[in-house]
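Hi C.,

You asked whether I'd gotten around to modeling the 520-residue construct. I have! Everything is below, sequence then structure, no commentary in between.
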Amino acid sequence: MISTIQQLLGGGYAPHGYCLLWQPWLIWTMAISDSLIALSYFSIPIALVTFLRRRPDVEFSGIFWLFALFIMACGLTHVVALWNLWNGAYQVEAIVKLITATSSVLTAVLLWPLLPKAIALPSPTHLRLANERLRAEIIEREKAEAALLQARKMEAIGQLTGGIAHDFNNLLQAVSSSLDLIASRTANDERARHLVDMALSAVDRGRRLTSQLMAFSRVQRIALRPVRVADLLVDIKELLARTIDPSVELSFDIEEAPHAVLADSVQFELGLLNLALNARDAMPGGGKLHIAVRNRHLEGRDDVDDGDYVGITVTDTGIGMTPDVIARAFEPFFTTKAVGQGSGLGLSMVFGMARQSGGTVTIESAPDRGSSITVFLRRADAALASATTPRHASPHEIQHLAGLKILVVDDEPMIREVLAEMLRGFGCTVSTAENGGQALGEIDGNPPEALLLDFAMPGMNGAEVARAALARRPDLKIVFATGFAQSDAIDAAVGDEAIILRKPFSPGALSEALRKALSA
């Protein structure tokens, strides 16, 4: 064994230095170079092995181990070359080169199929872009979650607002009906009539306030009818003045006797309030808010039919909007305000209101130049808008209702009492019930001709009572008298032609509703 090793190391061949004629500078140049190359080659596998041990999750670890073997064999060839400068161990050199060749060929054979996979690995740039996209998605998700939370808060506030409006409307109904009964009994007392009229005026202001709350709760039916914009602005001026900061100068410009528009008056007031609040928020340091009404004629637009419209323009001197913001302004939940400072529903609500009315909304704005938002609503017959229901029932309608057998269903005792007294004044025969069960029992035992029905009641709601009552008496006439009504539930029970009286209502509105129900 020892002799074999000696033969391999010695070999009996002339050393490589003999070929170099033993020139010192050649010998030592070759020796130093081979030594440095060998040391460098040996350090590379050590680094690779250290890397692989610390990063066992790295892709293609097998090829790294093979590459380390190949580099180690390359370093070994230089060690043998250094040895052979003074010894002729060419057999060892041949063996080392064979090992090197084998490892190099195997490395090459395995490397090429792995090349496409290696190329597909993400580069630092790709990773950076992917991280940026991930961060953007996280931000969008956080915004979506914040919008969802805000929507749930708005829904909860809407439900709370609707409940408050219902209770307040019941109180207003009791007060207004009592005042109407007092007025009917003091017709010759001018002082008493004056006091009653002032009280009824306060009730009417409360009614407008609860109507705005009901619109905010988003559960009442959209009622499109001709309304005068000028009259609505007169009603909402005081509310806008209280809502807008003192640092904002509020002004109006209304044309002489502008046309009426086809709209839901409560939704219109709420939409105008949203526009005014957005304008206020766009002017944190104060500014000017101008509301103008103009008759306009539109042609050639894709979103509305050609024709006559009324344009309501809300202009502010605030920070303005960029084109990107304008493009997304009507998207639900889109807002440029901080989380918790805006729901992103204001402009989308305004746009929805305009589209339901057959109109549209336009925005003109630029950064630091303020904004002008114009709501275009279809023009309507002003004569129809001026028609209002008289507060007191006419003698003709009282005569028409005389003898009518009617059941009043309401869970509030004072509401039942004042409505029953009002109906008896019309000459009706009145019975009362405080809930759905009592009402159905009354219908079975003493069938009425008409039903004056509240909606929000314990147990069965008004829609459920109406459905059960119609199942017993299909010819029964039903009028809903409520301060809070889920329109969809009523439509499902009695159809979309249901007659709904919004509390507080006057004797004239009650007699008109009953007349419509009887003639249907």
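If it helps when you're writing up: Residues 155 and 302 are 33 Å apart (CA to CA).

Thanks,
B.
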